[in-house]
Specification:
- With about 80 residues, this protein is an alpha+beta fold.
- The protein has one domain.
- The protein has two helices and four strands; from the N terminus they run αββββα.
- The strands form two sheets. A two-stranded antiparallel sheet has the order 1-2. It has a two-stranded antiparallel ribbon with strand order 3-4.
- The longest helix has 15 residues.
- The protein is elongated.
- It starts with 16 loop residues before the first helix and ends with a helix.
- The structure holds zinc ion (ZN).
- The site of zinc ion has 7 residues, from helix 2.
């Protein structure tokens, strides 16, 4: 997704919800911001965080999706209920 935003007087930019969701960014998560010689600004999560709850603790990467142990257990419980 690509979108256009204006920079506020104080220099802040609100990242659109869809962009945050696609990037796995949650309120309170730290990000790294860098620039390139061509003027490109890159914002990346400082640490991998769970796609579903945003925690950075006990996370694993499975098929390019970051997920924590708790969310994995919740999903598995739903699968178990569905299969009964
Ligand atoms: Zn989680």
């Amino acid at each position: 997704m690509e979108t256009s935003k204006k920079i506020c007087k104080n220099g802040s930019i609100t990242l659109p919800k869809q962009i945050r969701a696609e990037a796995g960014m949650f309120p309170g998560n730290a990000v790294n911001i860098s620039t390139s010689a061509d003027g490109t600004v890159t914002i990346k999560p400082s640490a991998p965080c769970c796609r579903f709850c945003g925690t950075v603790e006990n996370v694993i990467v499975a098929d390019n999706v970051v997920i924590c142990r708790k969310c994995t257990e919740k999903l598995l419980a739903k699968v178990d209920v569905t299969n009964d």
